[in-house]
Amino acid sequence: MIFITLGSQKFQFNRLLRAVDRLTASGDIDDEIFAQIGYSDYRPENYRFKEFLDRQEFSDMTDRADIVITHGGTGAIIGALKKKKKVIAVPRRAENKEHVDDHQRQLVKEFGDLNLIYECDDCDQLGEALKKVKNMQFDSYQSNTEAYIASIEDFLKQ
Fold first, then answer.
1. Which of 20, 75, 85, 87 has the least CB density, counted as fewest CB within 10 Å?
2. DSSP, res 142
């Protein structure tokens, strides 16, 4: 199954939803798809969706997924990586009014350079990205949260 998550910020990401709809309609994607579409106003015609999911629904969908397609949000990417999911990240673009700036492009590139995700900056390449990801091996995500906490605790003890 493919789970698409577009976050909860008040920006549309119609470009990605339309691309997946085209690929599904053409038969290039035959996997089950579910999308959490957030504030997008495009309504997919060829796969199931819901605007927002509660925490449990979101966790369940991520658990069921083989591949997570997401925007370039840190939380969405890391959440999927922690559950050992293959991630295709498509950064939002300011020029399309999908965000206020292009920081997601930089973030997605960093995760891609670390071989943690597949970086897909162009929705026209999404079909190819899906084919590649199914056979790719990614490095495991290693959280360094505990190291940060220990460092802060050490600092506070001084």
1. 75
2. -
Instruction: Name the band, by pLDDT with cuts 50, 70 and 90, for residue 61.
Output: very high
- Please tell me the pTM assigned to this model: 0.88
Around Cβ 29, how many Cβ atoms within 10 Å?
A: 21
The DSSP letter of residue 112 is: H
pLDDT digits (tens, 9 = 90+) for 3-12: 999 988 899 9
Rounded Cα–Cα distance for residues 67 and 88 (Å): 7
Under the banding of pLDDT at 50, 70 and 90, the label for residue 150 is confident
Please name the amino acid found at residue 89. A
Residue from 70, 62, 99, 82 nearest 5 by CA: 70
